Amino acid sequence: MAGTVILGAQWGDEGKGKITDLLADRMDYVVRYAGGNNAGHTVVCGADEFKLHLIPSGILYPHIISVIGNGVVVNPKVLLEEMDNLNSRGISTENLKISLNAHLVMPYHLAFDRLGELSLGKAKLGTTHRGIGPAYADKADRLGLRVQDLLDEKIFRTKVETALKRKNAILAKAFGQPGFDVDQIVEEYLGYADRLEPHIADTTLMLNNALEEGKEVLFEGAQGTLLDLDHGTYPFVTSSSPTIGGVFTGTGVSPKHIKKIVGVAKAYVTRVGYGPFPTEQENEIGELMGKKGVEFGTTTGRKRRCGWLDGVLLRYAARINGLTSLALTKLDVLSEFETIKICVGYNFQGKIYYEFPAHQSIFHKCVPEYVEIPGWRSDITEVTKKENLPKEALKYIDLIEQISGVPVEIISVGPKRTQTVWVSEEIKPAQIENGPYLHFEDYDPFSGGY
Ligand code: GDP
Ligand code: IMO
Ligand code: MG
Fold first, then answer.
1. What is the pLDDT of residue 1?
2. CB 276 within 8 A of CB 317
3. pTM
4. Strands 29-32 and 3-8: what pairing?
5. Are 104 and 112 in contact (CB under 8 A)?
6. Which of 95, 241, 353, 449 has the fewest CB atoms within 10 Å distance of its CB?
7. CB of 413 shorter than 6 A to ligand 1
8. How many CB atoms lie within 10 A of CB 430?
9. Looking at residue 447, what is its pLDDT?
10. How many angstroms separate the CA atoms of 401 and 411, rounded?
């Protein structure tokens, strides 16, 4: 058993990129299993900041094989741009592997995403406009194109023709929009194929072999539990499975290989896009959280909505995913507050719900029941040992553990690698000061170290 999963326990942007980067040091493989370039994962190392959308955060380490699993939807143009960008910053993408079975985001998916939102009017979801929903819809409709189709011009052309027959008719009849041209798409995408071909692989076989050999594999979740198509706040969700089940369908590995499931949660909650958010603070509290936490979307630059930590949702995320530990991020942002609130239940028409209410109307209309504790009002961004945190912060962490039923194993007190409190020394990376990728040329492939 050598599989570790890192996934979002809230509505995304929990800091999965930072936590993946920290744990990747000890891994052999880092794998994305769901989502597409709607994701934006930030890794900060010293003065360097990387924003990754499709490529796993492990790419920054030369010893790691980075894998885009079959559950991801791939926009090849964006992927190549991201590879070029990393290359221009001295990061090799030679070790990047892309599943043959991953679906492609096509130009018409972007158009349908935009038109879908427009047609919803006030009821729109606030998607990232990256074509994610329409790409997954075509996958389910068996009308999608896969990465492997890029390798055969005849097959690719036939599939594009089939798809466009339907898509162009809908564009014309339902939206009065011009259609897409087969030749143009084929030419553009086959151009990408030449560059992507060396990276295309049977990643399911590769990962299963690696796990059988006892290699360490990290599965890097995108989005978050509440954005899950099945278990999230539908319809205000994404169109994939960021939760634990997505790891298996999105990579083709067996659950028997998973030893650890780390839920990443902010010390408060944010959400981009529309949909219910019981603990949202549309006031100076939310403003302050946003300001101190620099809460702007990594992918779209949109302002994130902010609110107090929701214990009911955290317990739900623990249940759905079987979390074995929590990584609590952005605790430093709460240093600003005189008192801190945590939601422990929902009040709906006088009845208190301690578990996530499956009925949407309750979730939409409930009023949070809070526990309020004193804040610590001191700078914690240099703390690296749990016992050195203020007693009020320790109380807050204790409350989170009690409510979620999951131990907090990593506490993040700033965006940098060094700004981390390791509750468990066992998983602390060997090289914490600077990411090894900053010393790229010093890497010795024969000793496997620096
Ligand atoms: P992801 O999508 O889950 O990887 O998260 P994002 O990268 O979209 O957003 C998290 C943001 O918070 C990034 O800008 C990180 O650099 C930053 N961040 C991560 N951990 C911490 C922390 O503990 N404190 C602070 N202040 N910022 C953090
Ligand atoms: P990471 O991996 C936060 C949200 C969008 C929108 C909804 C549907 O960085 O945590 P989509 O474009 O997926 O159809 O949009 O999902 N969303 C995210 N919110 N973080 C993300 O990814 C997100 N990916 C999608 O804002 O509300
Ligand atoms: Mg993000």
1. 54
2. no
3. 0.95
4. unpaired
5. no
6. 449
7. yes
8. 9
9. 36
10. 12
**Whose alpha carbon is nearest atom 25 of ligand 2?**
38
Angle between helices 153-175 and 107-120 (to 10 degrees): 20
* Among 380, 315, 303, 312, residue whose Cα is nearest residue 345: 312
> What's the one-letter identity of residue 160?
V
Task: Identify the sign of the CA torsion 384, 378, 266, 53.
Answer: negative
Q: Locate 125 and state its tokens.
A: 């979801």
Q: What is the pLDDT of residue 259?
A: 95
- Chain-centroid distance, C-alpha 131: 17
Q: What is the pLDDT of residue 300?
A: 81
Phi, psi of 110 (to 5 degrees): -65, -40
Any catalytic annotation for residue 41? yes
Tell me what pLDDT residue 450 has.
27
Instruction: State whether the beta carbon of 298 lies less than 6 angstroms from ligand 1.
Output: yes
Which residue, 248, 325, 299, is CA-closest to 31? Answer: 248
Task: Give yes or no for residue 329 CB within 6 A of ligand 1.
Answer: yes
Q: Which residues of the chain have pLDDT under 70?
A: 1, 430-450
Q: In terms of Cα–Cα distance, which of 184, 142, 140 is closest to 162? A: 142
H/E segment holding residue 348: strand 339-348
What domains are defined for the chain? 265-425 (3.90.170.10)
63 is catalytic: no
- The ligand 2 site (C-beta within 6 Å) comprises 8, 11-13, 38-41, 125-128, 130, 132-133, 222-224, 227, 238-239, 272-273, 298
In this structure, which residues have their CB less than 5 angstroms from ion ligand 3? 13, 40, 298
Distance 231 CA to ligand 1 centre (A): 24
Pocket test for ligand 1, best of 7, 13, 302 (most atoms within 8 A of CB): 13
Cα dist from 134 to 109, 138, 198, whole Å: 5, 6, 28
- Find the helix or strand (DSSP H, E) in which 113 lies: helix 107-120
